[in-house]
Design a protein that fits this description.
- Helix 1 packs parallel to helix 2.
- A hairpin with a 4-residue loop joins strand 39 and strand 40.
- The chain has 5 helices and 41 strands.
- By secondary structure, it is mainly beta.
- The strands form 6 sheets. The protein has a 15-stranded mixed beta sheet that branches.
- It comes from Paenibacillus agaridevorans.
- InterPro entries: FA58C, Galactose-bd-like_sf, Pol/histidinol_Pase-like.
- This is F5/8 type C domain-containing protein.
């Protein structure tokens, strides 16, 4: 929350306020510390990377501001984008300036007029045209050095307030913590006692009402299995229960989490109330830490779209394209930036498509998808980097349950889903949400890792979820059971209609060259419409053999089809390399339920062309094609109904 102040012409002297003040940053490159942006020297600067990093200044007291000068000059023809926020309390922020144009950075920089009253200034660099660095050479903040007497912000819906400022409490104490932000120590509330409580009086839910309790929660013990159960009541420790949050350590020690609030009579939670948080239970060895709290209205998800009609088959044969459907950049926990990732995938790795799927809990505003700048910008970058029939720059999001259920990718959705909304730790609740979006694409990620529940073994089978659950990752490097197909076969045997995909899950760059895992897709044209049509109809396959094209039909129907049962089934398999790789095809297998090989044939020709008949008797069939070094392609099934 930023309060405006009025300017006096000729009566207020505006001076440089920022020089020598303490600055911190989300990340610092060696030799380019945050304080160097306010040291007044031409030869120094702050630098962090990749961009989308913030830099923050503490003016030590709330002051009336007039102007801010920002220079991102680095001696080249770069231009940068950024936005500037101001805050009085370090919790509630308001944007006061931005630079979105492509004007080249100069040593003089850009002047931004403002009438904000603030103690803290935060600059987030969102783009640089010449490299991946976020750089600030000078940040100069001008205003009056006569401090303003400010009242504490009200406890009002959507505004953050310190958890340490409780009106009544028992079993909680104060504790210093230095892991909230680099270079900063903060006082937080802490307790390891079941039954401890905090009471905050006169919290204004507003006429609109609230549906979430949000907070920045930390955990003294990094063990993710240790949980704390926090109950939310109105009035006091014996009041009406309106919510319950099951909390545990997520990716980092501190996370912003949100729990759903409700009323027993289904009436809006509005008006002014005393709010009590009770630590109902906490596992031995854990201490719950709370930095700030807020009551808020949960961001609504958009209206669903219907599933598009299937596209007609091409006049000739489907074309095969190769790519990677799971990757990350420095916009979450990878390296680099999306622009470079797409270019690397296209021009270095020679992929036909790349999907960037950042962890949904690592976006900015990750509890409010419609406010996330990263989410919008990745979509804009993807659109700019896509060239139909040449390269598809795709995007999605990875919903992440740390050390719990596992990870899943979502595609073709206007929003992302974040398991930091604690209601989505109940997986049926998550599944019910994605089932509402019939045009969406859902993918189970690396079931062999990143979750002690291993996606619950894909059980139970749900025919409605089956309509949007289209893909499952397999990986012959990390998961060798059943030749890498264990989880794929397990899901098929349960009844799921899914296709196997090869993904690299890049966190260290090398988008497409980290290994040979690829996803093949059969389409008439390389467009987003044709691509998602192929995925919905399972014309998709896994390959660890570079450029190995496979066409698989039963009774004339292409892979991914569902056909009526006949006494005999006519199989038609064609495999070849799109380009010379130095390898050759040596064997093909037809595989049925439980991963049993039903037929195998050796290949001694440059291309595999196989036609044969087998008696019916399996619910599904897929094909595995090997090259001489043991790498292979495994297709989506054809289901017999």
């Amino acid at each position: 929350m930023t309060i405006e102040h009025s300017r006096s012409n000729g009566t207020t002297e505006f001076v440089l306020l920022s020089q020598g003040k303490k600055a911190i940053a989300e990340f610092e490159i060696d030799g380019c510390k945050a304080g160097m942006a306010v040291d007044g020297r031409e030869e120094t600067c702050w630098k962090g990377g990749p961009y989308y990093k913030w830099w923050k200044l503490d003016l030590e007291k709330v002051l009336p501001l007039s102007r801010i000068r920002i220079s991102a000059y680095a001696g080249d023809e770069r231009y940068v984008h950024y936005f500037v926020e101001a805050s009085q309390d370090g919790l509630n922020w308001t944007e006061i300036a931005s630079k979105k144009d492509d004007a080249v950075a100069t040593l003089d920089g850009v002047w931004h007029e403002t009438s904000a009253a603030a103690r803290y200034i935060r600059v987030t660099v969102t783009y640089c045209s010449t490299d991946e660095a976020a750089l600030l050479r000078h940040v100069e903040v001008y205003g009056s050095d006569d401090p303003l007497e400010m009242e504490a912000p009200p406890r009002k819906a959507s505004l953050l307030f310190p958890a340490t400022e409780w009106d009544e409490g028992e079993g909680f104490g104060l504790r210093e913590d230095d892991e909230l932000e680099p270079g900063r120590r903060a006082v937080v509330a802490a307790s390891d006692q079941a039954g401890a409580y905090l009471l905050y009086r006169d919290v204004d839910f507003t006429a609109q009402g609230v549906s979430q309790l949000r907070g920045e929660f930390g955990f003294a013990n990094p063990d993710k299995s240790l949980k704390a159960n926090l109950e939310v009541r109105l009035g006091g420790p014996e009041g009406v229960v309106i919510g319950e949050l099951v909390l545990f350590k997520q990716w980092k020690r501190w996370s912003i989490l949100a729990g759903e609030l409700f009323s027993s009579d289904n009436q809006p939670l509005n008006g002014v109330h005393d709010v009590c948080l009770i630590l109902k239970s906490i596992d031995p060895g854990q201490t719950l830490l709370i930095h700030w709290l807020a009551l808020a209205q949960a961001t609504a998800f958009p209206a669903p779209r219907p599933r598009p009609a299937d596209l007609p088959a091409p006049n000739g044969e489907y074309r095969v394209y190769f790519g990677n459907l799971h990757s990350h950049t420095g916009f979450s926990d990878g390296i680099g930036v999306p622009e470079y990732a797409y270019d690397y995938a296209r021009y270095t790795a020679e992929l036909d498509f790349l999907a960037i799927t950042e962890h949904s809990n690592l976006y900015d505003h990750y509890l409010d998808w419609d406010k996330s700048r990263k989410w919008r910008e990745i979509q804009e970058i993807a659109e700019a980097k896509t060239e139909e029939d040449a390269f598809l720059a795709l995007y999605g999001a990875e919903t992440t349950w740390y050390n719990q259920f596992g990870h899943m990718n979502t595609y073709n959705m206007d929003f992302f889903i974040n398991a930091y909304e604690t209601k989505f730790n109940d997986i049926p609740t998550y599944y019910e949400l994605v089932k509402r979006y019939p045009d969406s694409i859902q993918q189970w990620n690396h079931p062999w890792s990143c979750g002690n529940r291993h996606l619950d073994g894909f059980a139970p089978y749900d025919p409605e979820l089956d309509k949007v659950m289209h893909m499952l990752e397999i990986n012959t490097i990390e998961s060798k059971e059943l030749g890498g197909l264990y989880y794929y076969v397990k899901a098929l045997d349960l009844g799921w209609h899914i296709a196997p995909v090869g993904s690299q899950d890049n966190h260290h760059g090398q988008w497409g060259t980290e290994n040979t895992l690829r996803t093949g897709v059969l389409v008439d044209r390389l467009t987003e419409e044709h691509f998602f049509d192929a995925v919905r109809r399972q014309r998709v396959y896994f390959t660890s053999a570079l450029f190995l094209q496979v066409w698989f039909r039963v009774n004339g129907a292409i892979m991914g089809s569902r056909i009526s049962e006949t006494e005999m089934l006519s199989f038609d398999i064609v495999a070849s390399y799109r380009r010379e790789t130095g390898q050759r095809i040596v064997r093909a297998e037809i595989i049925g339920e439980q991963g049993i090989v039903l037929h195998s044939v050796e290949c001694k020709e440059p291309e595999l062309r196989l036609q044969l008949e087998l008696p019916s008797g399996q619910r599904y069939y897929f094909v595995k094609v090997y090259q001489e070094d043991g790498e292979f392609a495994a297709t989506a099934p054809i289901w017999v109904e």
